[in-house]
Write a structure and sequence with these properties.
This protein is 0% helix and 58% strand. With 119 residues, the chain is mainly β. Strands 2, 4, 5, 6, 9, 10 and 11 form a seven-stranded mixed beta sheet that branches.
Length: 119
């Protein structure tokens, strides 16, 4: 059973920084893609950033230049460094991991961690 343990959310003033972490465990297969999504009240869940095992990254346009995603493959952990935070970054952030087994993708979600940015 794959488990995702998130940490690092909280309350911060605009312009501040937070670092989210997500540790994945419970699979004997590698986690091909690890990333973060977020969902603000009344809005759809959206991709923030993801990173594949080889290191390539993808970012939402709204966070480019402010957020940085990284991973430690030895620890099966993905990080999201969030700088220059804006009130519109306020949302529940969810860790997401995907693994391919025999040509099938399996996807797992964390429980979510609240990020609140005050103006």
């Amino acid at each position: 059973q794959v488990q995702l343990v998130e940490s690092g959310g909280g309350l911060v003033q605009a312009g501040g920084s937070l670092r989210l972490s997500c540790a994945a465990s419970g699979s004997r297969f590698s986690f091909n893609i690890m990333g973060w999504y977020r969902q603000a009240p009344g809005k759809q869940r959206e991709l923030v950033a993801n990173i594949i095992s080889g290191g390539s990254t993808k970012y939402a346009d709204s966070v480019k230049g402010r957020f940085s995603i990284s991973r430690d493959n030895a620890k099966n952990t993905v990080y999201l460094q969030m700088d220059s935070l804006l009130p519109e970054d306020t949302a529940v952030y969810y860790c997401n991991v995907r693994t391919m087994v025999d040509s099938y993708w399996f996807e797992y979600w964390g429980q979510g961690t609240q990020v609140t940015v005050s103006s």
